[in-house]
TrEMBL record, chain A:
Its main location: cytoplasm. Residues 16-304 form the Dihydroorotate dehydrogenase catalytic domain. The keyword Hydrolase does not apply. Belongs to the dihydroorotate dehydrogenase family. Type 1 subfamily. It comes from the Bacteria. GO terms for molecular function: dihydroorotate dehydrogenase (NAD+) activity. It catalyses: (S)-dihydroorotate + A = orotate + AH2. The gene is pyrD. Binds 1 FMN per subunit. The active site is at residue 148. The keyword Disulfide bond does not apply. Catalyzes the conversion of dihydroorotate to orotate. This is Dihydroorotate dehydrogenase. Its EC number is 1.3.-.-.
TrEMBL record, chain B:
InterPro entries: Cyt_c3_hydrogenase_gsu, Dihydroorotate_DH_ele_sf, Dihydroorotate_DH_Fe-S-bd, FAD-bd_FR_type, FNR_nucleotide-bd, PyrK_electron_transfer, Riboflavin_synthase-like_b-brl. This is Dihydroorotate dehydrogenase electron transfer subunit. Belongs to the PyrK family. It comes from Paenibacillus forsythiae. Residues 1-91 form the FAD-binding FR-type domain. PROSITE patterns: FAD_FR. The keyword ATP-binding does not apply.
Amino acid sequence: MIRIGDSSPGNTELDLTTRIAGVTFKNPVVMASGTFGFGKEYARYYDVNELGGISGKGLTLHPKAGNQGTRVYETASGMLNSVGLENPGVAAFLDKECAYWETLDTVRIVNLGGNTFEDYVAGAELIQKDADARGRKAVDMIELNISCPNVKEGGIAFGIRTCDARELVRAVRRATKLPLSVKLSPNAEDIADMALMCQEEGADAVSLINTISGMKIDVRRRRSVFNNLYAGLSGPAIKPIALRMVHQVAKRVEIPIIGMGGISSATDIIEFIMAGAAVVQVGTYNFMNMRAGHDLLRDLRQFMIEENIASLDEIRGIV
Amino acid sequence: MGTVISNERLADNVYHLRVSGDYGGEMGQFYMLRAWGAYPVLSRPLSIHQVGDGEIDFLYHVVGEGTELFAQLTPGDSIQLEGPFGSGFPAVTGRVALVGGGIGIAPLLYCSRELPGCDVYLGFSREPFRTEAFRPYAAKLSVDVGGLILDSVDFAEYDHIFVCGPHPMLKAAQLKGIAAATSGSSVNVYLSLENRMACGIGACLVCSVSCKDGQRKACADGPVFLAEEVIFHD
């Protein structure tokens, strides 16, 4: 229960909590992978323990330098990014960042990617081993990013065809006892089918949507702005698509949905919850407002008071 | 929120923005600015031109949607500033040269104030701007139009050289620094890099810079780097 201060109208008690696979989120505002580092940078600007959770920068088994050339380009109401999963690797994360995560009072989610089946499984095993050693004091959940290119399948992402992703989800599920959410790509052939597969394979939740594949051409240089040709579109531009996909998936699966895509206001959060999301993630909005998490929570509580909503359970999935 | 004092056009597409308020910052640090609500989504990183006495100044070149909106600001308008961010130029002693090319002169005025007695070299492809602002602080002020300003700088004469300018100029400065070191000079060359940014505080990694010891963040580890550390890919 969140106790609203005396200055708030009615001094109402609001329930913003949600549980996913035994993990309690104190509120539905989780910071999205890739936009929030491991939380430390933003902790200088507001108390990140206010947040429902943090999904850390995407990790791979081995360190990655990421893509060369331009990595970001602004678009109408959004942005394209081509970071290419620059990250220190799972082992370095566990070694250097987990001590900080142990101090946090918010749900800590490790986002795990990989270019081969074996790397994903080895990464998950390493995270599990560390969690066992620490007594789960640093990592509460794994978010499996299946949007990475599958090296063996000629670079086609694992997350496009349900049949390609099934074995991966099954193997990672076997490799870890930690709560597992699978992060789905909007580029999947059938995202609801993909989510259903995740449920069948024992995932505890699904996170959606990842960025939408997009492009920007430099007309003077007559080439793509990005060395990698295509890049991932995020921001308010993709919100209607993300919301529709969360809604479609919510109609097909029983497991909780971590919904995201272009959220930049408290009413956006409410929309995702009404579409069926258990909690939401906020990404690009962090770049529009450095204190995004703090401001969204303030506005969310205000909205709940105005609309006489005591608990988000009252409105979850009502549309 | 800051309030615009003035927003003067200095040359073709170059503006001098003055904002009132008690802001701080070190040489070579920057602020993330936005003069709009939600869109464009990203704030714009601008280095500190000068700061103190109840105001902060920026120089910017109009290159796109965001800077076009900056150009429309008039006195009294509000503008949002977050910062100061980044790791700037070091507070050095000894013989110092400041070398700026075009809009790259922006962070050097504050340096010249903090390091009085330095030599200042300013190069422009066409119309020069803000050169007189450096005169009170510079021991020597050298202005070049249409040439290569780095050609005027004898690297062996200095202990520290701060460089900010277009990409080819930074690469050339790196090479001159290496050549000087080979000839026995102990000059330290510092480059202020420019990169597209999103978060501005080291969280999103879109402004990553290749360095000898791996990927570094232009916004948090930089924008100022020792020239010898940077790997230029093009």
